[in-house]
Amino acid sequence: MMRGNREDGSFVSAGSVVTRAEVLPLVQEVLKHGQSGIAPDVYLIDWQGIRAVWKDYSRRRLWGKLWGKFVVARETRALARLRGLPGVPQVLTVVRPAGLVMEFLDGHVLPRKGIREKVSHQFFTQAFSLLAEIHARGVAHGDIRRKNIMVLRTGAPAFIDFQTAVLRSGRFWGNSLFRLMCKVDRWNLLRIKARSFPRYITQEEWAVLDHPPLLLRLGRFLRRRIYRQWKNQKHHN
Question: pTM, whole model, 2 decimals?
Fold first, then answer.
């Protein structure tokens, strides 16, 4: 795992702001081109002597840039609360007009198939512990799914992509939403575990899976009853 260390062992300080023109010459590899109007381009860069990841929304159209500025600010706030926590990328700098450079984590995301060949059920025990630490710091991930869970080279879990994170606040509605999203995080992680390691799911956990949080039930209803009908009508027209 690349912890963002220099050769002398010191951690690169975060909190600076640079421009896209300053970061562009540092690109070593294109990791992903944004496939939608709001998805970032993702690059591997050499940041002050270490490998880092640059998420860049600046090549999107106006709406994509506005969305990028919003999620960069959200992800930066979330990761600031999680600074120093192993298994979470650390912010290195914000990039104007709409980008973020963060620590490179050495590993791979959970595969679509063959999870049992990559990790053991104990991986999920560690993942739940890490998720509990994230929640304890006042951050709900908000988008726990396979592609946002990494297996580090050490075999330890990591969570990435905090752009939809929900932060605990002092307001009633903010805290209510935070608690709900923590519940959604745990349910989604449990579902991923159950698909690959059903024999390690307890009766109590199966009962939890049988009753998804209200927000997930609402999302499922909208996808199945509203979006799919609209998509089918659009196709036939």
Answer: 0.83
pLDDT in tens, 3-36: 443 333 333 444 578 999 999 999 999 999 887 8
Q: Which amino acid is at 103?
A: E
Task: Describe the crossing of helices 172-196 and 121-136 by its angle, rounded to 10 degrees.
Answer: 170
In 116-165, where do the E strands start and end? 139-140, 149-152, 157-159
Cis bond before residue 97 (omega within 30° of 0): yes
CB-count exposure of residue 162 (10 Å: 0-12, 13-18, 19+): buried
Task: Point out which residues pair with 55 in neighbouring strands.
Answer: 42, 100
**CATH number of domain containing 138:** 1.10.510.10
- Is position 211 within any domain? no
